[in-house]
Structure formats: C-alpha cells, structure tokens
Design a protein that fits this description.
A hairpin with a 2-residue loop joins β7 and β8. The protein has 2 domains: about 140 residues, 3-Layer(aba) Sandwich (Rossmann fold), CATH 3.40.50.2300; about 100 residues, Orthogonal Bundle (Arc Repressor Mutant, subunit A), CATH 1.10.10.10. The protein contains 9 helices and 12 strands. Helix content is about 35%, strand content about 20%. The protein is an alpha/beta fold.
C-alpha cells in the first residue's frame, strides 16, 4: 500500500516537557530522519530519540523519506532496508547521487557479511542488525554525528566561573577546587560540553556508563545529585538544573 506524505510525521517534545518554562530553546536540537515502515519499531526509536534530545521526522516509505531528505536538513538519517515504495538501499543511493552527505545508519534484519557490505557500498555509514537495543542505536547515531562534525576535543573546558582541566582531572569553581570521583568528572565533562542544552538520562547513561544499565534505574539521578552537591551547594548561582520530563542542563547564567 502506498503511504502518502501525510503519514510522514514530526516528533516534538510533549507540551508539558518544561522546556519553555526553563528558558531552554530547541534551536540546537539535533534533527534525525527516520524511515521505517514497521510502526512498532518506528514508535520505539522515535520515542527514544526524542527523549535523547532529538527532533525526529518520520516516513513509512522510501519515496516519502526521499522527499523529506531532499527538502530538509538532518544531522543523521536512520533508514530501514525493506521499505515500500523505494527500498532503503535505493533511497540511500539516490541521496548520495544528489550529493546529500547526511550520515546514514541502516537498519535491517539481514545479517550476513555480504548484506552489511552491500549496505555500506550503497552509501550507508553504519549498519545495525534487528533486533537491537536502543542504547546501541543511540550510541551509533551519536558516533556518526561526532564523525561528521569532528573537531579536536578541548581538554580545558570553561562554563562561567567553572573550569575543568581533563588532563589534570581538576575542577575549579570561582577559584575553589572541587574534588570529583571519576564518574562525577565524566558527568561534569558531558554537561559542560553540552552547556545550555538539555541532555536526557539515556544520553547520560550512554556516555558515562557502559550500555548494560537499565534506563529505568535511578543511577543517573543519584550521580546528578552527588555532582550538584559539589558544584552548586556553596554557591548562590545554581548551574545544574532538572528539566521536567526531559533531563538535565548546565546553565551558565
């Protein structure tokens, strides 16, 4: 059955997400294109990406995905192989033929080496076999974006009166040195690199821990609480904020 463009949807934060109330805009939000005809998988992936801070445009067929990809700008595209209309590999070839360089993660139940090679030769940048864990998909998406926007990572970070030297592993706020445990330092680094941008619990889990943790556990909340006690407790200006329904953000002012 042909799927019309009316079936291509954009996932937005829920109205009660608290973003507007916190003063955090969505200008810096990463945009992902998801082309997947399995409604269950599409809902699962879109929801996870949205919780991770992405804006997600969805299409259920290759033709609709092509129209979205050629009329919008995306940081990453996630494309299933077996699609109605235009199949996934043909879609990717068409994008590359039009000089669209958006990083592409291929989703497929085909798992042989030849299948993966075919997908990469068609212009895909990575290949994920179904079924998959969302944490792995998110890690691959973030790796694709990092490679596409690669720049030398600074080892000295500054956010307002807070500085972090990654070589000496030394954090200082307003001239006062703050002693941090390894996980606290890793979380602070991640928040500082994303200062002003909301990061979800899922994003923190994938950066600060390995991917075996259940996102429903409270390990993130506990770590954020510990870090907040050290970074904010003795200062009038609080830097680490909770954004209801979204995650956490480090605010300079």
């Amino acid at each position: 059955m042909r799927v019309g463009l009316r079936d291509a949807t954009t996932e937005r934060p829920e109205p009660d997400s608290g973003v507007a109330e916190s003063g955090i805009g969505i200008v810096g939000r990463m945009r992902a294109l998801l082309v997947e005809d399995d409604q269950t998988i599409a809902d699962f992936v879109a929801r996870g990406l949205r919780e991770a801070g992405f804006s997600v445009d969805r299409a259920a067929g290759g033709d609709d995905g092509l129209q979205l990809a050629t009329t919008g700008t995306y940081d990453v595209a996630i494309i299933d192989v077996m699609l109605p209309q235009l199949d996934g590999l043909s879609l990717i070839k068409e994008l590359r033929g039009r000089q669209i360089t958006t990083p592409v993660l291929i989703l497929s139940a085909r798992h042989t080496v030849d299948d993966r090679v075919t997908g990469l030769e068609a212009g895909g940048d990575d290949y994920l076999i179904k079924p998959f864990a969302f944490t792995e998909l998110l890690a691959r998406v973030q790796a694709l974006i990092r490679r596409a926007t690669a720049a030398p990572a600074s080892t000295h970070l500054t956010a307002g009166d807070l500085t972090l030297d990654l070589r000496s592993r030394r954090a200082v706020r307003a001239g006062r040195e703050i002693e941090l445990r390894p996980r606290e330092l890793a979380l602070l680094e991640y928040l500082m690199r994303n200062a002003g941008r909301v990061v979800s619990k899922t994003m923190i889990l994938s950066h600060v821990w390995d991917y075996s943790f259940d996102p429903r556990t409270n390990v993130v909340d506990v770590l954020v609480h510990r870090l907040r006690e050290k970074i904010d407790r003795d200062f009038d200006h609080k830097m680490i904020h909770t954004v209801r329904g979204m995650g956490y953000v480090l605010k300079v002012a």
